[in-house]
Structures are given as C-alpha cells and as structure tokens.
Design a protein that fits this description.
- This protein is an alpha/beta fold.
- The chain has two domains: 3-223 and 308-330, 3-Layer(aba) Sandwich (Rossmann fold); 229-295, Alpha-Beta Plaits.
- The chain contains twelve helices and 14 strands.
- The longest helix has 18 residues, at 168-185.
- The protein is elongated and about 80 Å long.
- The relative contact order is 0.13.
- It binds adenosine-5'-triphosphate and magnesium ion.
- Magnesium ion is lined by residues 43-44, 84, 160-161.
Length: 332
C-alpha cells in the first residue's frame, strides 16, 4: 500500500517544553486514521506540522509525496484541513463562506458553484445555505467547516476534533460523512479525537498519543489483543479443580482465577477458543452451565498503554449505538 502521510521523527518544542517528541507513523491512501489522545497530548500540534501551519523543530513529514518543510505549497494543494476552532465568517452565509474559500484556492466561479452545491448537499446543509452562519447550531457549523475543508477536492483531509462537544447523534452523522467521502472520492482521512468509543467504532487504525509520544498504533482489534485478549468466564457443573487444570493446559490461556464454580481467564480470540475449551471439558464430563466472552474495551487499551484512564465524556457504547441506529433509520 502506498503511503499518504509519513511522519519522520516529527518533533515540536515551544521554548524548552516539548509538545511532540520524535513521532513516527504512516497512514495509507484511502485509510480512515484516528489520532487518539487526551487534552494536551499533542494532537493539534501534530496536525499543524502535518498541514504546514507550524514548522517542525526536528524531523519532517511527507504528505502525498511532498515534504512539509521543502514543498509546503505542494502539500497545501494536496490537503484539506478542518481545524479545531471554527474558521467560517459568522456574518456570511454558508454559501458565501464556501464561495470565499473557493476563491482563495483560485477555483473558477462556475466550478466553485458546482462544488459548493454538491458539498452542502453532502453535509445536509442545502436548506441553510442562505442563512448567516451566526444562526447555525454547533453541529451545523462543524458540517460547514467540513464542506469548506473539501472545496479543493483534497487527496487527504485532516480533521481536528470534528466531533468535539457535539451530541452523540451528530457525532455519528459526522463519521457517516467521513465514510461517504472515502467511498465517493477515495479521500484519506486523518482525524483526531479524545473519544475512545469513537476511535474504537469508526477508525480503521488508531495511534494513541500522550505527552507528545506515540504509545501504540494498530487497528482497534490489534490494540485490544495486545492488552491480552478476551476475558472468558465459565461456570461449571462438576469438578472445578479438574476444569481449572484443563483450562490452564490450553494454549494461550493466562490469568486463570477460580471463584466457587466460576473460572475466569484471558485468551486471544475468545470466540474461536470457547468451543475448543467446552469440548475439552465435555470429554471429562464437566458441563459448563454458562459462558461469557468479553472483549477488552478501548478504555482498558488506553489504560494499558498510558497507565491512566480517559473516560468518554458522554454516553455508553450502548447509548451510542442506539443513536447510530436512530440516525440510520432517519436516513432511510
Ligand atoms: N504555541 C504554543 N506555545 C506553547 N505551548 C504550546 C503551544 N501550542 C501548544 N502548546 C502546548 O503543547 C501541548 C500540546 O498541545 P496540543 O494543542 O497539541 O494538544 P491537543 O492534544 O491538541 O489537546 P486538546 O485535546 O486539548 O486539543 C500542550 O501542553 C500545549 O499547552
Ligand atoms: Mg487539540
């Protein structure tokens, strides 16, 4: 796979404070990449270096084949940016903001009008195109900012906390746009968030950053496996000690604990391991009366790599999924 974004020892110091330290990672074309970290981790600083807004103190990055230090203009042509702060002019309408930014890119008027209409349609703002931005809600503003970031048809779109502070329904809708974009234009997406649930559910690969350093990179599934796999809890009817020995003898099992008739342990790929374990127990006439398999959560992944917890500000995963289903229904 070809590399759309490559950070090479990317470093940013402000005075003697190091905001980002020697980070290295690659994002492939067409990927939806999540950059996950708590407040002050260095997410925005990294995006600013990747998008030529601020110059790295050390190291560099290659964006769409161009070096951010040596070819910043080429980099800027290749990318769209949706910054953490709003950039739209409040006194202008959504439409006027899009036309203004198109003019900045030197896009001819007719072409600009076509793109603006298409983008407003995509982010479901056509109905509010002629309203002043000051009358928009937070979610509408975010959607307009996304449309603005796309006016130059970038190969790579950087979004800095596009879902921050939005309700779960709007957050889900924004991820929907991101995936629609990728489907329609093959856009590569680099997106920061500090919502663990979101990174887990929507990002194809995730980098965890904390105190300016990357602590882990991989698919959410890979990161969970690094934590030690799934937790299986089996309640047995029969000889618990024998059952324990059988389970301990199975490849990949770790952390076995017994509590009454209940045995708990960790294993990779719990779903495929479970039937094997049940069969081994069955051979010794030990019956399982119940079995549960629990994947580690992103919260546990974060704790494992950073040594502390980062709680989602709102909503359990169930709540989030309910919202998503509601959004999906509303679309139909
Ligand atoms: N211009 C600056 N001068 C000095 N320190 C800065 C500057 N910009 C950022 N920092 C510091 O660098 C660190 C990383 O900031 P950054 O904005 O990259 O974090 P972040 O991960 O985007 O956080 P958030 O989730 O709050 O947006 C912070 O400690 C911040 O105070
Ligand atoms: Mg930030």
């Amino acid at each position: 796979m070809e590399v759309a974004i490559k950070a090479i020892n990317l470093t940013k110091r402000y005075g003697n404070f190091t905001a980002v330290y020697h980070i290295n990672f690659e994002v492939y074309y067409g990927e939806v990449f999540g950059f996950l970290g708590p407040n002050g981790a260095g997410k925005t600083t990294t995006i600013k270096m990747l998008t030529t807004v601020t110059r790295p103190t050390e190291g560099t990055a290659i964006i769409n084949g161009y070096d951010v230090i040596k070819q910043p203009a080429k980099v800027r042509e290749s990318i769209g940016v949706v910054p953490q702060e709003y950039t739209a002019d409040e006194d202008l309408t959504g439409w006027e903001n899009l036309m203004l930014i198109a003019a900045l890119y030197g896009i001819p008027k007719r072409e600009a009008r076509e793109r603006a209409a298409e983008l407003l349609d995509m982010v479901e703002l056509s109905y509010a195109a002629d309203r002043k931005v000051e009358t928009y809600s937070g979610g509408m503003r975010r959607r307009l900012e996304i449309a603005m970031g796309l006016i130059n048809r970038p190969a790579i779109l950087f979004l800095d906390e596009p879902t921050l502070g939005l309700d779960a329904q709007t957050r889900a809708a924004i991820w929907d746009y991101v995936y629609r974009l990728r489907r329609q234009y093959g856009t590569t997406i680099f997106m920061t968030t500090h919502y663990l649930e979101e990174a887990d559910r929507y990002a194809e690969r995730v980098a965890i950053i904390d105190h300016g350093k990357i602590l882990a990179i991989g698919t959410p599934k890979e990161l969970k496996e690094k934590v030690g796999g799934d937790v299986i809890t089996i309640e047995v009817n029969g000889d618990v000690d024998t059952a324990r020995k059988v389970i301990e003898g199975i490849d990949g099992v770790s952390g076995v604990t017994v509590n009454g008739n209940t045995i708990t342990f960790k294993i990779r790929n719990g779903n495929t391991a479970a039937p094997i374990i049940l069969e081994a127990l069955n051979k010794l006439s030990i019956r399982a009366t119940s079995i549960t398999i629990k994947e580690p959560t992103m919260d546990e992944v974060f704790l494992e790599f950073t040594g502390r917890r980062l709680r989602d500000e709102e909503g359990s995963s169930e709540e989030f999924m309910r919202f998503r289903r509601t959004v999906a229904r509303a679309r139909r």
